[in-house]
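Quick one: structure for this chain?
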Amino acid sequence: MHLAAFFTIVFMNTRFRNTSILLFLLFFVFEVSVHAQKPTPTPDENIGPTKVFEVRLPVTVTLKNQLVNGMTRGDFQVFEDGVQQEVTYFTDEKTNPPVYVGVLMDTSPSTVGQLGFSREAAKDFIATVIRLRKDKAAFMTFDHEIMLRQDFTDNLDMLTRAVDTVKKPGSQTALYDAIWQFADEKLRSVPGRRVIVVITDGDDTFSRADLHDAIDIAQRTETTIFGISTKAGFLGTVPGVEAGTVKDKGDRLLEKLCEETGGEAFFTGDMLALERSFKRISQELRTQYIITYKPANQNYDGRDRKIEVRFTDPDKTRKMKIRTKTSYRQIRDNLK
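Got it. Here's what it folds into:
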C-alpha cells in the first residue's frame, strides 16, 4: 500500500487512532530500513530497448611474470559462454584511451604506524601513472567515513596536497562502501579506462555493501581494481608470514575482488615491497591491451556470463598468460 493512502486510512479512523499510529510508525521504519540496507546504483534513464551494448576488456599479457607488449588484434580471440564473439575495437599502449584512476587509502586505526609512508608511496604512484593532459587521478580515504579529498585532475600539486591532508585515522574500515561509492559516482561517466587502486591493511568492518556488491559495481562500470595489502606490516613482525603471500580470509577476499575485475592483489611486507607494487601497477596500465567486443547475446538478462580471452597462436598459449576479468552481468545500466 502506498504510504500516503495508509496515512489517510489511519487518521480517518479515530476509533483505532493510537494503535494505527503505532502500526504506521512501524511500517515507516521498516520501509526506511529496507532501502538503507544496500547501496543503490545511479539509475539509468536513457537506455532504450534497442540499445546495442559492448563489453570492454582490459587485457594483460605476461611471459614468466614479465609484461608483454607488441601484441596485435589478430593475436586474440574472445569467447562468451563458450561462443566466439565479434571484436569491434582494439587498442595497445600507443593508442589506449586515458586512464582515470582512483587511489583509495585505508585510514582505519590499524594504519597509524603506516600512514606516513603510505602517503609518500601514494604520491609517487600518482606522479608516475599520470601523463599530463591525458590521464587523471582522484584521491579518497575510507575508515568509518568515506571522504573524497581530491576529484579527478591531472594537477599533481593538487593531488599531493590532498594526500598530505591525511593526518588522523578513523574508527572502522568501510572498504566495500568506498569502492561502491567511487565506482558508481566518479567512474561511471568518465571517458577512459577506469581503475581503482586500494591500499588497505584490514578486513572490511563497517560497510553496508559486501564483496559481491563491490565486484558487481566494478564490473558494471568496467572498473579494474588493484589491491595492495599492507597487513604483514612494514616491520615484518607477523610470525610465519612472508611478504607476497596470501595470508588470511581478508586477503583472500581482496584477491577475489581484484581477480574478478581483471586486476591483481599485492601483499607487501615492507616499504620496498610497497614501492614495487605501485611500480608494477603503473607499468601494467602502460602495457595493457583494451579489447572491445559486441556480445552475440544482446539480452539484458542479468545472469552471469563467462568470458575467456585466448591466443590465436597455440605456441603463445603455451608460453604466455592472459589476465582479464572472467565474467559480468548484463543489466540495464547507464555507462558513457
